[in-house]
TrEMBL record:
One of its GO terms (molecular function) is UDP-3-O-acyl-N-acetylglucosamine deacetylase activity. It comes from Candidatus Synechococcus spongiarum. Catalyzes the hydrolysis of UDP-3-O-myristoyl-N-acetylglucosamine to form UDP-3-O-myristoylglucosamine and acetate, the committed step in lipid A biosynthesis. This is UDP-3-O-acyl-N-acetylglucosamine deacetylase. The lineage of its organism: Bacteria, Bacillati, Cyanobacteriota, Cyanophyceae, Synechococcales. InterPro entries: Ribosomal_Su5_D2-typ_SF, UDP-acyl_GlcNac_deAcase, UDP-acyl_GlcNac_deAcase_C, UDP-acyl_N-AcGlcN_deAcase_N.
């Protein structure tokens, strides 16, 4: 699969593709169908309703996942799917969800990337107008923070520091392109720690985890 060289042009998928699996937190089976779109953005619908344009005001805070509020209800654990679509350069697509949660699959964005590769991409007319960081923005929660700085490009620098030796201290930096996303970012998998499992399951979470 030859991925776009950058994120300047508008792309959609060439034809429909579906994946099904179990949700990480609900433990319930769900199905997602991706369909070509030309409306100028990502849109999502559930329970047979027409897709609505995904915007930041639809995001809802949830423990250990990202969720979006649709007219038909909350759809949880959207992060791997949306990362895959944005990461490979897709600007226009319709997402149809049958269920309350996006399936976990192998715990990474890679299965979604592979699904897109199986049907291919279609170039649309016109160029994109991506958001631009014009001044420094910092969001902090406890010992963690995200810092966005004005920059002519898409450079990401990520550092983690966990007590567990299995993860420990790690640093990753990339000037992101669709190809770099597919090769280096998409395979990264969700992880958890054994000593947290009982507490999380008691809280009604990770019922579909293994």
């Amino acid at each position: 699969m030859l991925w776009p060289a950058d994120y300047h042009n508008r792309w959609t998928i060439a034809e429909e593709v579906s994946l099904a699996g179990v949700g990480l937190h609900s433990g319930l089976t769900s199905r997602v169908t991706l369909a070509p779109g030309t409306s100028g953005g990502l849109s999502m619908g559930s329970m047979g309703a027409s897709p609505v344009s995904l915007r930041h005001h639809l995001v809802r805070e949830q423990r250990l996942c990202t969720a979006v509020q649709l007219p038909t209800g909350l759809v949880r654990t959207v992060e791997h799917l949306l990362a895959a679509l944005a990461g490979v350069g897709i600007s226009d697509v319709q997402i149809h969800v049958e269920g309350q949660e996006i399936p976990l699959l192998d715990g990474s964005a890679l299965p979604w990337v592979e699904a897109v590769a199986a049907v291919g991409l279609q170039l649309l007319g016109g160029q994109r107008s991506p958001p631009v960081v014009r001044e420094t923005v910092c969001i902090q929660s406890g010992d963690s923070h995200v810092l966005a700085l004005p920059y002519e490009g898409r450079r990401f620098s990520v550092a983690v520091n966990y007590p567990s030796q299995a993860i420990g201290q790690q640093f990753y930096e990339v000037e992101l392109t669709p190809e770099q996303f597919v090769e280096q970012v998409a395979p990264a998998r969700t992880f958890g720690f054994q000593n947290q499992l009982d507490a999380l399951r008691s809280a009604g979470l990770i019922r579909g985890g293994s």
